[in-house]
Design a protein that fits this description.
mainly alpha, 2 domains, three-stranded antiparallel beta sheet, about 5% strand
Length: about 170
């Protein structure tokens, strides 16, 4: 049996995902700049709102940054009065979003939704559902098999806070 020449290779898909991510990131960065927020700052506000009382390390995993980068973002948000930090067990520092941070997060979410609505405008509802399922399958498959649960997610998966996406009900 010969392979269908119209089926893209894994490398082709990897490059398309990368290109789409970079262009989405650029569009979101430009839009968020209007309210004085960077993409990493918005991600951190989102993570703290979704997972209050998390350590900097847990938040770094959630948003896909190094502990050092996440710490710098947290410090900047705290200076702006958007996050509060308090001591946790041992050396852990726990984080909560302030009312000002929650309001800015709502504005940022609206901005990101507007950007994504524009970027996804050419897709039907069925195509969007298929895209969501496909991206979820890729994310789940990327987890080491030894750490996957029956549902496909690893216990303690830093992206598990994004599971609301399947139900379309944000945290």
């Amino acid at each position: 049996m010969t392979a269908d020449q119209n089926v893209p290779s894994g490398v082709d898909i990897a490059m398309l995902l990368r290109r789409a991510q970079l262009r989405k990131q650029t569009a979101c960065e430009a839009a968020l700049a209007r309210v004085g927020v960077t993409l990493p700052q918005w991600g951190m506000l989102y993570a703290v709102a979704a997972e209050p009382d998390s350590s900097t390390h847990a938040l770094a995993l959630f948003i896909g940054q190094s502990d050092q980068s996440a710490g710098a973002v947290v410090a900047r948000l705290e200076q702006r009065g958007l996050l509060e930090r308090r001591p946790g067990a041992g050396k852990a520092i726990l984080h909560r979003i302030t009312p000002e941070g929650a309001e800015l997060l709502r504005r940022c979410d609206t901005i990101a939704e507007e950007v994504m609505t524009r970027l996804l405008a050419g897709l039907t509802d069925q195509t969007l559902r298929t895209l969501q399922d496909s991206l979820q399958s890729i994310a789940d498959a990327a987890l080491p098999a030894s750490t996957r649960s029956d549902a496909g997610r690893a216990p303690g998966d830093p992206l598990s806070g994004l599971s609301w996406i399947r139900s379309a009900t944000p945290p």
